[in-house]
Amino acid sequence: MATNQRRVDMTDTRQTTQSGQFFWMTACLWLLLAAPVSAQLLNEETEDSDYPPGLSARYQAGDTEIERVDADIAFDWQAGRADSRLADGPVSVDWTGYFLMKAPGKYRFHAYLQGELRIELDERTVLEASADSPRWVSGPELEISFGELPLEAS
């Protein structure tokens, strides 16, 4: 009985060793296959991170002017001020930055706004509109080229 028990223990040890070897072979294979993908993703992140995300913004209300970076241009200022450092009342904003166009083609810009908006991309007006009450507005369809294009909005 003890002999059989010992044989079973050795078989279990051999199976554990074999499954451990299989695990490490699988892990090494996964690392070898994942390394080029990780390097490619890292390279893409580095290429796209030449510029920080967002647009440089210059806000003006009365005599006060502030600058900050806005990650998105999507605001609802009906409930409060655009920035706590600004006085209440009308606000004007100028945004500048770069727009990375990855696929050239025909595009149309849209905005949901109340007030006035003008967007220039690569020194061309892609949207210019005003609205007394909140509504959607659209610019003309334009052919836009590939690359990092200067963007200005106000």
From TrEMBL:
InterPro entries: PA14/GLEYA (IPR037524), PA14_dom (IPR011658). It holds the Pfam family PA14. It comes from the Bacteria. Residues 50-154 form the PA14 domain. This is PA14 domain-containing protein. It comes from Rubinisphaera brasiliensis (strain ATCC 49424 / DSM 5305 / JCM 21570 / IAM 15109 / NBRC 103401 / IFAM 1448).
